[in-house]
Specification:
Radius of gyration: 18 Å
Number of strands: 14
CATH superfamily: Ribonuclease Z/Hydroxyacylglutathione hydrolase-like
CATH class: Alpha Beta
Largest sheet: 7 strands, mixed
Strand content: 25-35%
Bound molecules: zinc ion
CATH topology: Metallo-beta-lactamase, Chain A
Shape: globular
Helix content: 10-25%
């Protein structure tokens, strides 16, 4: 990754490229500090017989929160960002939705920001369409957890109308029950209450949401993987096709520079930080031992890599997919 923004270009994979470039260009002008916009917003690779399309939504240069890591100083956090060649004036959180094309299934792993989280993100749908996909043909949407950057792409701004009315939306029963419990408001900080209000106003009225228990297979070769901590019912997704496997870890390790290199750091973004540490160590041990490649929702685009052990810690090798 570079510290200066590269010009946005298109590839033969994209149609409707000029409209895309024009809109992207105006957004970029308004946000000159964006550091992680990829040269192209689409990368595709195979896992067995399945094709994965990594589709970029945008980036959040998030200001530091108080105690972003409870057991590390901001100086140590900045040093870790520097080691990963990231700017240290803010936290760089790109958003990438992984799309699985397998047999008759078209599956999204989370839904993008829907342009409702930060002005420098919200490009998923235009990039999805430019890659030749049709929202009406999405068969399933797997939701890792209910933070806004993962679910606001399901609903239109203002009306909350469903963006994917034909898709089955699959979410862990633990996550669904936690956010739709009337008592959740007593457990949430003030700034998270509007999120729970929106979820409670919308999700129970939709007929196309399925609650998933445990590590059930939800489509041929696609299973939920329990990875709680970031939220109570956070899940990852494992794809197996032929002899190949691929993990969509989503926010199990949300920022490689922090959570992969320093797995024991207790993050302010994790609702139960100690449980999140246990989940990410368990997952990274599995990925390293079995050589399974991984996609993370906030990894540097194309959000793809391999995990290896590095003493008591881990390292993410970013391979161009
Ligand atoms: Zn997230």
């Amino acid at each position: 990754m570079t510290l200066t923004r590269r010009a946005f270009t298109t590839t033969a994979l994209l149609s409707g490229a000029s409209a895309l470039a024009g809109r992207w260009g105006s957004t970029a002008a308004a946000a000159a500090q964006v550091t992680q916009d990829p040269a192209t917003p689409l990368a595709q690779y195979k896992v067995g017989d399945a094709t994965i399309s990594a589709i970029y939504d945008g980036v959040w240069e998030r200001p530091y929160m108080a105690n972003v890591i409870a057991n590390a100083s901001v100086e140590d956090v900045k040093a870790a960002l520097g080691k990963a060649k990231l700017p240290d004036a803010f936290l760089t959180l790109p958003f990438t939705v992984s799309v699985i094309s397998s047999g008759d299934q078209l599956i999204l792993c989370d839904a993008g920001t829907g342009g409702q989280v930060v002005p420098t993100a919200g490009h998923f749908m235009e990039n999805f369409k430019a890659a030749g996909f049709d929202a009406a043909k999405v068969t399933k949407i797997l939701i890792s957890h209910c933070h806004p950057d993962h679910i606001y792409g399901l609903m239109e701004k203002g009306s909350n109308a469903p963006v994917f009315p034909n898709a089955e939306i699959m979410i862990s029963d633990a996550e669904y029950k936690w956010w739709t419990d009337p008592a959740v408001f007593n457990k949430l900080p003030e700034d998270r209450k509007p999120l729970a209000q929106r979820i409670q106003a919308v999700f129970p009225t939709w007929k196309n949401i399925t609650q998933v228990s445990g590590e059930k297979e939800v489509a041929p070769g696609v299973s939920f993987v329990e990875a709680p901590g970031h939220t109570p019912g956070h899940r990852a997704f494992l794809l197996a096709s032929g002899n190949a496997q691929h993990m969509f870890s989503n926010d199990t390790m949300y920022m490689p520079a922090l959570n992969v290199a320093h797995p024991d750091w207790l993050g302010a973004f994790d609702q139960d930080a100690a449980t999140a540490v246990a989940s990410r160590r368990k997952m990274m041990d599995r990925l390293a031992a079995d050589g399974i490649a991984v996609s993370g929702y906030h990894f540097p685009f194309p959000a793809y890599g391999k995990i290896a052990k590095d003493g008591a810690d881990y390292v993410l090798t970013v391979e161009k997919a």
